[in-house]
Amino acid sequence: EHPTVPRALSGLGDAYLSVDKIDSALGAYRRGLSLQDVEEAWELTFLKGVADALIRAGDLDAAAQEIQQYESKRSTPEWQSRVNQILAKVFEAKGNLPRKHYHLEIALDAKPGDASLRFSLAHSYSNSDERPLAIYHYAILAKQRADAAELNNLAVAMDAIELPVHAAQYYRSAIAKGNSLAASNLAKTMI
Predict the structure, then answer these.
(1) In this structure, are residues 32 and 46 in contact, taking their beta carbons and an 8 Å threshold?
(2) How confident is the model over 144-165, as pLDDT tens digits?
(3) CB count, 10 Å around CB of 188?
(4) Residue 63 pLDDT
(5) Rounded distance, CA 136 to CA 146, Å?
(6) Which pLDDT score, from 0 to 100, does residue 6 have?
(7) How far apart are alpha carbons 165 and 171 in whole angstroms?
(8) Model's pTM, two decimal places?
(9) DSSP collapsed to 3 states, the chain
(10) What does the pLDDT average to over 179-184?
(11) Is the dihedral of CA 120, 121, 126, 129 positive or negative?
(12) Euclidean distance between the first and final Cα of the chain, in Å?
C-alpha cells in the first residue's frame, strides 16, 4: 500500500500522472524524494516527476520553488546538469525564456560535452531570435561532431543575421553530409 522501492514509487507516480491524478502523482514522487539513501538517478527521476506534475497542474511558481530547493543538494556534474534542465523546463512553461536559457547554460557548464544539451540550447536560442548565441553553440557543435543537422541549423542562424557567405559555406557542408533540407535552404539563400 505504501511502497518504499524507488522503481515502484516512480511507476506509481507516472501511472497517476498519466490519468491526471496530480495530487496522487505528487504524493508518490515526493515520497520517493523522502527515501533515505536513494541513488542520485532516482532522486532526479522523482524531481522531474514533481516538476511534470506541477507543470501539468499549472502551478508553475510552486514547481520552480520546489525544484530550486534541491539545486545545491548534490554537487556532481550530472546532478547540477539535470536539476538545471528540469528548472529550464519549468521556466519554459512559465514563458520565461531568459530564465530557461540561464538554467540551460548552467546545465551545460556542468556537462560541456553533452552535445544533445548544447543542441537543445542552440535551438532554443534560435527560436527566440537570439541568433548570435545560437550561432555560438551551433559552431561548437560543428567542431565537436559536425553533424549535418547542426551544420544546417548553424547556416540558418547565420542566414538570419545576414551572413550569407558563411551560411552558404555551412549549407554546402551539410549537403555534403546528406542533409537535403540544407540544399533547399542554400537555394533560398542564393535567390
Answers:
(1) yes
(2) 777 787 778 778 777 877 778 8
(3) 10
(4) 96
(5) 14
(6) 93
(7) 10
(8) 0.80
(9) CCCCCHHHHHHHHHHHHHCCCHHHHHHHHHHHHHCCCCCHHHHHHHHHHHHHHHHHHCCHHHHHHHHHCCCCCCCCHHHHHHHHHHHHHHHHHCCCHHHHHHHHHHHHHHCCCCHHHHHHHHHHHHHCCCHHHHHHHHHHHHHHCCCHHHHHHHHHHHHHCCCHHHHHHHHHHHHHCCCHHHHHHHHHHHC
(10) 84
(11) positive
(12) 67
Distance CA 174, CA 50 (A): 40
Please state the three-class secondary structure of 158-177 as a single string: HHHCCCHHHHHHHHHHHHHC
Measured between alpha carbons, how far is 58 from 160 in angstroms, rounded to an integer?
34
Look at residues 35, 26, 33, 37 and name the one whose alpha carbon lies nearest to residue 4. 35
Q: Which of 30-34, 166-170, 182-186 has the highest mean pLDDT?
A: 30-34
Question: How far out from the chain centre does Cα 93 lie?
Answer: 12
Structure-block grid coordinates of residue 39: 541513488
Please state, in angstroms and as integers, the Cα–Cα distance from residue 51 to each residue in 20, 45, 47, 107, following that order: 14, 10, 6, 17
